[in-house]
Automatic annotation (TrEMBL):
This is Type IV CRISPR-associated protein Csf2. The lineage of its organism: Bacteria, Pseudomonadati, Pseudomonadota, Betaproteobacteria, Burkholderiales. The gene is csf2. InterPro entries: CRISPR-assoc_prot_Csf2. It comes from Duganella vulcania.
Amino acid sequence: MTIHNRIEGIFRLTRPMHCASPDESLAKSDDGNVTPTMQMRIVTPNGVQTIPYFPGNDLRGRLRRKAAAQVLDAISVAKKIRLELYVGMNSGAISASPDSAALTVEEVLRARDNVYMGLFGGGARLLRSRYSVADLVPVIEDTIAMGTVPSRFGDLADGGFKASFATDEGLKAMRGYQLVQVTQVLRVDDTLRVLRPDELEKYIGDSSAVANYQTAMLAGTATRKADKAKAKAGEIKKGDISGKVGIGNILAYQSIVAGTPMYFSLDFTDDVTDEHVGLMLLALQALVREQGLGGWVRAGLGKFTADLSLVRHGESMAIFTDKAASQDATFTPAIIEQFIEPATRAIAKLTADEMFEFFKERAGAESEVA
């Protein structure tokens, strides 16, 4: 990797962002009804801190799929493709087990010149990719102090800023935990609560069905509540608690607060071509236009603006025409001419057969020939 070929900048959240974490200790809840968002522990001059983030591995998968769509749109024009190729291009491989056949110099060189495989790698014999993408981390005093975020992104004089809050003494730096909020979600059973009796009378043919439904739901809830009490007292095992029958529910999830600036960093290897960079830019544009990072997108979460720059052989250029690019993200003319047009031409030359060769196993075929 090299600092001379990279994409970096800021994703500024315009809505909260949630990415579910399996670490239940982050939820700070005993009932298990709060889904935590991803957080990491970092060592800073202010001691060990916990900060929320969005995983780079998640970004990597999304970018692969966006790039795959660009290629699949082109190669499927002549005829439909095989399911295996679709799976391979979106997931990186068709099988969970790598092909035992040796990776040849010929395939490495062929992949290098392929606009998609040369960038994202993968395939049956695990070709290497030519980029890495880091976790999205908040721009705060602690991440700048530890060197994760370049200081210029927190410098007001350079147009950046770091998360802070106002006090009587002026602005104070925010800690990572202060960027995490909890949202409660209430799911109501309209029928059980008889919220609109006129509708029940209008739409339901069997008037006794509502009473029977209420009786069953209430009985199931009472049984489950009693089982929980028995489990707490040690009279029964947790696995023996009756299942939930009612659709009503109260749950909560953590998210990173809206307005948080998140540092984005993607690094290329020295030998990437302009076509490779162009395909990555197309994937990145599709990601920004989609406006849906993480979970609870259905509730409007995961929206952001992108202010990104490409550094290519030491020369820096803005990627989008707007410093707050979102669903209408548009490339600058310089980006289109130098990267997007070459990438588009390279994609147009690809064929389904050519792409499938990278995902097809050779081990069995070689043994048959032998």
